[in-house]
Design a protein that fits this description.
globular, Ribosomal Protein S5, domain 2, 9 helices, 9-stranded mixed sheet, binds (3R)-3-hydroxy-3-methyl-5-(phosphonooxy)pentanoic acid, single chain, 4-stranded antiparallel sheet, 318 residues, alpha+beta, Alpha-Beta Plaits
């Protein structure tokens, strides 16, 4: 780097178990952090330097939002990631969260998770046009995070509001569960998919009812998870996938990976904004699901959950 003091930080990716898209309208959602991380190392600079190259300040909207929120006009940043981009696994949220921590630490500002989650959500909102805090809060806190869950399901962490929407963010104890992520290999940025659902929901009462139905099954899924009822949770995940397909955010490749996983799973669904990206399956037979995903043209990752959120890394990371 440039000889200036530097701070390294990392944050995990996430997978949404239930409630994507509907959560944008203040409805509930559940997500788990996964053992794939985004790493960054930052130091002060008068201009924007990314992996050793000078770039325009606006080139990455998440980065500009975080550095502007912290009163800077440039930063020198080295970055590396294990999270595939534009794939529904929270790569932008992990970037925003880890960058916020590193910049705050560098400037001697508060580094509590709530401040970081709010910086990261702001970045997501500015870049995406409309967003919920599910990704950014999960990548910041780690473990399991539920938004707008009923009393008794989780422990409240913080509250985030934007315009007329607000979300109570809670943590919950993650039960032992095995998930396989299947990557279609198709990149699909979140913003246009969120906008597609917004237009459909605003113009069609049937679409608005589907969004409400996703909220209902998400609440039921939180109860199933609390009772460690995988059969119940899995069938709600599969139902959630069908409702998201009706909203127009699935695609043939996602449907194929969901279908081929179901014979060996409690349930399966797309995760994140859809249109490509990834699906997840809840299973006791991860190897069989992984093989089926590979045979059907996807890339499987057997993921670990219960992983830590954003953190300062002592050693230089990739
Ligand atoms: O695809 P991802 O990882 O950006 O997930 C987006 C989740 C949405 O509900 C579709 C949008 C949001 O901001 O909550």
């Amino acid at each position: 780097m440039n000889g200036q003091p530097a701070v390294s930080a990392s944050a995990p990716g996430k997978m949404i178990i239930l409630g994507e898209h509907s959560v944008v309208y203040g409805k509930p959602a559940v997500a788990l952090a996964i053992n794939r991380r985004f790493y960054c190392r930052v130091s002060r600079s008068g201009e924007m330097i990314l992996n050793g190259r000078r770039v325009p300040a606006f080139v990455h909207p998440h980065i500009s939002s975080v550095i502007n929120d912290n009163g800077l006009s440039g930063i020198s940043m080295d970055a590396g990631t294990q999270i595939p981009t534009s794939s529904g696994l929270g790569s932008s949220a992990a970037l925003s969260s880890s960058l916020s921590l590193a910049v705050r630490k560098l400037l001697g500002r508060d580094t509590d998770q709530e401040s970081i989650a709010k910086d990261a959500f702001n970045a997501e909102w500015n870049a995406q046009g409309r967003a919920s805090p599910i990704d950014t809060s999960t990548c910041t806190h780690g473990g399991g995070v539920a938004l707008n869950c009923p009393v008794g399901i989780g422990r409240e962490l913080w509250r985030i509001s934007k315009n007329d929407r607000s979300w109570n963010v809670s943590e919950f104890d993650v039960p032992e569960m095995t998930f396989v992520v299947g990557h279609t290999g198709i990149k699909a940025p979140t913003g246009p998919l969120v906008e597609k659902v917004r237009k459909y929901r605003d113009s069609n009462t049937f679409a608005a009812e589907i969004v409400d139905e996703i909220a209902n099954i998400t609440l039921e899924g939180m109860e199933r998870m609390k009772q460690d009822d995988r059969v119940g949770l899995g069938s709600l995940m599969t139902k959630n996938h069908k409702l998201l397909s009706i909203l127009g955010v699935s695609c043939p490749q996602l449907n194929k990976l969901v279908e081929c996983s179901l014979p060996y799973s409690y349930g399966a669904k797309l995760t994140g904004s859809g249109g490509g990206g990834c699906m997840i399956a809840l299973t006791d037979h991860p190897d069989k699901v992984a093989r089926a995903i590979t045979l059907h043209g996807g890339t499987p990752y057997i993921v670990n959950t219960g992983v830590p959120g954003v953190q300062v890394d002592v050693k230089k990371t990739k």
